């Protein structure tokens, strides 16, 4: 394992005051479209994603996994994922355990088609033990349910995957509305009640979480970057037979490619892409949904606006590693050169 970062005991909780951003040690490898999850209150894990090739404007899918130690503000590289994956579905349930439940992988384009990107969903699933730095294969997603870019919710021993996508290629991407669940105790995938097995609308590149006993799916998009949504869908996991319902509280800024985290009954949503009013196509908004009142509030914008990342909550702060600084596929001049991706190694945290 290799360690990177800053020496000392600096961390977000020490330097971050309420409603402010704090810069942290940069990721050793710039990346976006990766998975991010907290392992306990001490570690943030980033898995897979796409990273720029050395001295090139192209990107590649990686199996790289790096862990951020909150107390020391340092990164280290650990055993790679069992396969190269972007848009992975990640969850942390038991202490030191990280679940990788499918995602998107590189495949050759169909014969006769010239595609820069051709990613399709994998149903392969694994669990990682941070204490031993070991991976173990677990039950694959049932045929036809594979997807990446899902909203992941954890409730007791259950992991729920809502929506997602099965293909993302140059000029085309889909979105699914199905909801599936994995029981970490039995190690089996379980069928949901019919009323809960489908979202009100297909969705990918959304955000959300389980807060209390309710699973929330917020924003995101259907198909392309400009087909984003501002809705909030809710599923009461104690009354799953009642199915999904739409909240009356709409996110102030409709957007996809977003990320966020829940603290003290409030869900914070950041960034995103598909912004027609920005030269980069990226949103800088920070907006907060109060679960109790069903109302939204606009907060201090992102210090470094991004999309294509995820957020993880630990110790009362929301950690946001990496991401894209411009809308993917949009021509932007970076350092005097035309770029279609602008992947960053920046890492910061927001403290509510």
In the residues, how many domains can be counted? 1
What integer is the average pLDDT? 92
**Quick one: biggest sheet?**
6 strands, antiparallel
* Anisotropy-based shape: globular
What's the N-to-C terminus distance? Answer: 33 Å
CATH superfamily (homologous) name: Kelch-type beta propeller
**In total, how many beta strands?**
32
Supply the CATH architecture. Answer: 6 Propeller
Classified by CATH, the class is: Mainly Beta
The CATH topology corresponds to Neuraminidase
Q: Could you explain how this protein is built, in words?
A:
With 352 residues, the chain is mainly beta. The chain has one domain (22-351): Kelch-type beta propeller (Neuraminidase). It has one helix at 12-15, and strands at 2-5, 20-23, 35-39, 43-47, 50-52, 59-61, 65-69, 74-77, 90-92, 97-106, 118-129, 134-138, 151-155, 158-164, 167-169, 172-173, 176-183, 188-190, 198-203, 207-211, 214-218, 232-236, 244-246, 259-263, 266-270, 286-290, 295-299, 312-314, 317-324, 332-334, 337-339, 343-351. The strands form eight sheets. Strands 9, 10, 11, 12, 15 and 16 form a six-stranded antiparallel beta sheet that branches. A five-stranded antiparallel beta sheet has the order 1-8-7-4-3, with no helix packed on it. Strands 13, 14, 17, 18 and 19 form a five-stranded antiparallel beta sheet that branches. A hairpin with a 6-residue loop joins strand 5 and strand 6 (59-61). The radius of gyration is 19 Å and the shape is globular. This is Galactose oxidase. It comes from Aspergillus tubingensis (strain CBS 134.48). It holds the Pfam family Kelch_KLHDC2_KLHL20_DRC7.
């Amino acid at each position: 394992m290799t360690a990177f970062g800053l020496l000392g005991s600096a961390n977000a909780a020490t330097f971050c005051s309420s409603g402010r951003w704090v810069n942290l040690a940069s990721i050793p490898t710039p990346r976006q479209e990766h998975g991010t999850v907290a392992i306990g209150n001490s570690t943030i894990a980033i898995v897979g994603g796409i990273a720029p090739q050395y001295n090139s404007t192209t990107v590649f899918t990686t199996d790289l996994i790096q862990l951020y130690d909150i107390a020391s503000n340092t990164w280290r590289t650990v055993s790679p994922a069992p396969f190269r994956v972007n848009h992975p579905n990640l969850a942390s349930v038991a202490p030191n355990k990280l679940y990788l439940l499918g995602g998107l992988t590189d495949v050759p384009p169909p014969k006769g088609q010239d595609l820069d990107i051709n990613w399709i969903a994998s149903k392969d699933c694994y669990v990682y033990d941070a204490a031993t730095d070991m991976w173990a294969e677990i039950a694959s997603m049932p045929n036809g349910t594979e997807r990446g870019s899902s909203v992941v919710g954890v409730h007791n021993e259950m992991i729920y995957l809502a929506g997602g996508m099965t293909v993302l290629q140059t000029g085309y991407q889909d979105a699914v509305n199905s909801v599936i669940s994995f029981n970490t105790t039995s190690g089996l995938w379980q069928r949901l009640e019919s009323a809960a097995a489908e979202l009100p609308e297909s969705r990918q590149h959304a955000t959300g979480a389980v807060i209390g006993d309710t699973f929330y799916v917020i924003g995101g998009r259907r198909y392309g970057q400009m087909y984003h949504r501002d809705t909030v869908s809710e599923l009461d996991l104690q009354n799953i037979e009642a199915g999904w319902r739409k909240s009356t509280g709409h996110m102030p800024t409709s957007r996809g490619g977003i990320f966020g985290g829940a603290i003290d009954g409030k869900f914070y949503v950041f960034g995103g892409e598909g912004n027609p009013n920005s030269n980069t196509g990226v949103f800088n908004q920070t907006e907060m949904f109060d679960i109790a009142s069903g109302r939204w509030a606009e907060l201090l914008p992102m210090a470094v606006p991004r999309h294509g990342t995820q957020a993880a909550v630990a110790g009362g702060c929301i950690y946001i590693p990496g991401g894209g600084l411009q809308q993917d596929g949009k021509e932007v001049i970076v350092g005097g050169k035309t770029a279609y991706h602008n992947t960053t190694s920046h890492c910061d945290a927001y403290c509510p």
